[in-house]
Amino acid sequence: MNLLHHLLTTIVAGADPGPFALVRRDGAAGLDVFTGAPRTVSRLADIPLPPGPAGPRTLALVPYRQIGERGFACVDDGAPLECLALSGHVRVPLAEALAALPDTPTPVRDAAFDLPDGEYAEIVGRVLRDEIGRGEGANFVISRSFVGTLTGPALPAALAALRRLLQGERGTYWTFLVYTGTRILVGASPERHVSVEDGLVLMNPISGTLRHPGGVADRESLLRFLADPKEIDELYMVLDEELKMMATVAEQGGQVIGPYLKEMAHLTHTEYLLAGRGSLDVREVLRETMFAPTVTGSPMENACRVIARHERRGRGYYAGVLALLGRDDAGRQTLDAPILIRTAEISPAGALRVPVGATLVRHSTAAGEVAETHAKAAGVLAALGLRSTSAEPDTVPAGVAPAAVTPPDAVPVTVGAAPAAEVRLAEDPAVRAALAARNHGLAPFWLEERTPGAAVLPWLVGRRVLVVDGEDTFTGMLTHQLRALGLTVRTRPWGDAAGQERFDPTDADLTVLGPGPGDPESPTDPKMTALRGVVDGLLAAGHPTLGVCLGHQLLAGRLGLPLHRRSAPYQGLSREIEVFGALRRVGFYSSYTALADADEVVTAYGPVRLDRDAVDGTVHALRGSTYAGVQFHPESVLSRDGMAVLTDLLGWLLPDPSVPTGHGTPEPHTSRHPG
């Protein structure tokens, strides 16, 4: 308590206490107080993590611009990667901390969203029409910020906000205040981005938002929310995207656990937990998982382009992470990193910024997403003493606000009192049943614990696969499934087909043309030009080839089938269709498709069998003598029967040498693959 007392008395006296952090982590009974020396580094790999006794070593503030380390687009606002090399640490019981923290919020003047509701709604409409509608991705998170200026000292105001968040918010992963000497971050993040302990890597995708600004959600509203297709799609899509990340940082990819309900003071979300074993340096784990699809979108690389194109300004620390790095008793690295959302950024001079974002999917409406940003800002704004009615559209002052927005009278905080809402609906039988129903159509491969070697098919062992990445890290999930079946897999980016590092696409037993965003018929897109050249070479050589989503579209186009942009995108959509004689439930992420008016066509590369939609003739799958393509994603968590589809296709393209006759045997599986 002495360390906290020293910090608070220094601040009350108007002096600078030096860098510190106050953190309450998920489930902790007390408030961790950290002090340390500030340091700015340029790369995640430079974050200090020295050896020594067990415990935390470094607290890093990772800005959104760090996404540039992965080569992804961003508006570079110069926000630094700041670290506190920790030297002091005590844990203070929560009641004592609450009693010591100040509770006098500072008025805020000129308070408003930087983008008025109407302007933000126009951006939402453009993204739905021009990006999701044209195949650039499945979902995108577009942000706006509530801004203002504190009329008094910044640190006391931030401490008062922390106290209110500790007392009044619930369902948080981290509640925190970090002061580096150059900036203050105070917030209550509900979402773990990634953690590593004892070799176990965990990620925690949270998506879907039920707003209840007036108090606790009621049961009927919650059940309607859990049945809402938009909210369901939103969670599935971020689940798939974080599984892509787990495919990179965990040896066997991630196992899906959940879903669960995340109940907060103003909002309720749905969430999954992903778990897998990994051995990477924790700084590399951070790099490979920048940044969560819940605050960017999918596919990730193109989502960053879309964000830069439509936001046209830097994000500061919004969508980045706090990262606490340390070591355990055995000297192994540890990591705990919440996403920087529901967080206020405050300069020492009092400039206030509260960034929030809405996840746009094909079911989104501009009005709904505007309302979501208000609701997401509500908790932090209330903690800062701004009126809770600012959580709803059109009640936040537009343009220049009055001289000051004063604290509301109706936000009491009492030391030792329970949070305002203690009702928990997660245990209601109907709610539990609605959550469990979310998994009924999902892939057992990702839901069930996997035993290494259990899915291996003997005739595939030792055979080599080359996956050409079309700029969608779904290829990571596909790679895990192919390896689980016994294949040796390597991946090359599409750019290698266009640059100096050219490769031979036939240098494997099978080449997989992977998924990716964009218009497959574009005459100017260098990616499409390069991949069309790869397809031509594979077809001319008669080399075994499998196309997935974009790869399927390009294959179909080179076979002479017309390509078509759907009037409504198939993004994050699960359907039961027939695939070469068997009913399969599979997941689609596409805006383009091939068309045909017959079930078989003759091409320059031989006859092609097609599986088409009976209503509009869209081609779900095709198969020729040495090639096959599927418009859906067998690797997606939405593809319940994805492993069975892959097994059938591999049996066609890489037949079992012990089975007589040619292609077409073995027959398609008629039951689900156990995964």
UniProtKB/TrEMBL annotation:
<dbReference type="GO" id="GO:0008483">
    <property type="term" value="F:transaminase activity"/>
</dbReference>
<feature type="domain" description="Glutamine amidotransferase">
    <location>
        <begin position="466"/>
        <end position="648"/>
    </location>
</feature>
<keyword id="KW-0808">Transferase</keyword>
<dbReference type="Pfam" id="PF00425">
    <property type="entry name" value="Chorismate_bind"/>
</dbReference>
<dbReference type="GO" id="GO:0004049">
    <property type="term" value="F:anthranilate synthase activity"/>
</dbReference>
<dbReference type="InterPro" id="IPR015890">
    <property type="entry name" value="Chorismate_C"/>
</dbReference>
<feature type="domain" description="Chorismate-utilising enzyme C-terminal">
    <location>
        <begin position="119"/>
        <end position="376"/>
    </location>
</feature>
<dbReference type="InterPro" id="IPR006221">
    <property type="entry name" value="TrpG/PapA_dom"/>
</dbReference>
<keyword id="KW-0032">Aminotransferase</keyword>
<dbReference type="InterPro" id="IPR017926">
    <property type="entry name" value="GATASE"/>
</dbReference>
<dbReference type="Pfam" id="PF00117">
    <property type="entry name" value="GATase"/>
</dbReference>
<keyword id="KW-0315">Glutamine amidotransferase</keyword>
<keyword id="KW-0456">Lyase</keyword>
<dbReference type="InterPro" id="IPR005801">
    <property type="entry name" value="ADC_synthase"/>
</dbReference>
<dbReference type="InterPro" id="IPR019999">
    <property type="entry name" value="Anth_synth_I-like"/>
</dbReference>
<dbReference type="InterPro" id="IPR029062">
    <property type="entry name" value="Class_I_gatase-like"/>
</dbReference>
<protein>
    <recommendedName>
        <fullName>anthranilate synthase</fullName>
        <ecNumber>4.1.3.27</ecNumber>
    </recommendedName>
</protein>
<dbReference type="GO" id="GO:0000162">
    <property type="term" value="P:L-tryptophan biosynthetic process"/>
</dbReference>
